[in-house]
Design brief:
- The N terminus is likely disordered.
- A six-stranded mixed β-sheet has the order 5-8-9-10-11-12, sandwiched between helices. The protein has a two-stranded antiparallel sheet with strand order 1-2. The chain has a two-stranded antiparallel ribbon with strand order 3-4.
- It has five helices and 14 strands.
- It is α+β, with helices and mostly antiparallel strands.
- Strand 11 and strand 12 form a beta hairpin.
- The radius of gyration is 17 Å and the shape is globular.
- Helix content is 27%, strand content 30%.
- The relative contact order is 0.13.
Length: 188
């Protein structure tokens, strides 16, 4: 079995370097870090607009699962394993069934069924689209990509991409049936 490793610099006087495998990373994942293409990547770049959109989406999705009786939980910045990486989606929804199956684990060993990534000023659209594709290839059913500055939301499912402008109402396509919210309200 081929083991993937990443180079870590440990802060010592001699600047020693230590290799860590994805398996070791998943046992003791550092906070705010993802394991991407063999490197540890810190999640940075959150702006006030990013934080507000994240907070609102968490609240709206949580209220919907409670009021609709669909169950499950909302997981902000929670580590999951894709086919290639270890990622921390900005917001994710986990079903009751997955909670029962994996609820005691530190890391979900697959993608969450519903994921939202919120664009920061230092994110490129190409990177966000690639990340969305990676989530879908790893078991996710629906990915929301929020662009707070542009007041746009894109939804990616296995079948298609959908674009919602500020004057439209966005709704879930495959998960959390019946959820919808005005884009302008979510990204205001």
């Amino acid at each position: 079995m081929l083991e993937t490793q990443v180079l870590l610099e440990t802060p010592t006087e001699s600047t020693e370097k230590e290799w860590i495998s994805i398996e070791d990373f998943l046992i003791h994942p550092p906070e705010r870090m993802e394991w991407v293409d063999g490197e540890l990547v810190e999640k940075t770049g959150m702006t006030i607009k990013h934080g507000l959109a994240q907070g609102k989406l968490i609240s709206y999705w949580r209220n919907h699962i409670i009021s609709s009786g669909q169950g499950g939980e909302i997981c902000p910045e929670t580590l999951c394993r894709t086919n290639k990486q270890a990622r921390r989606p900005d917001v994710a929804y986990i079903t009751t069934e997955l909670l029962q199956q994996y609820g005691e684990l530190t890391v979900l060993p697959e993608s969450f069924p519903l994921i939202a990534e919120i664009a920061s000023p230092d994110d490129s659209a190409e990177e966000l689209f690639a990340k969305s594709k990676e989530y879908l290839e790893s078991g996710c059913l629906e990915v929301w990509v929020l662009f707070p500055e542009a007041q746009l939301i894109m939804i990616h499912t296995e079948q298609r991409w959908l674009l919602f402008n500020a004057d439209e109402v966005v709704s879930t396509q495959t998960i959390l049936q019946g959820f919808n919210v005005a884009v302008s309200e979510l990204l205001a």
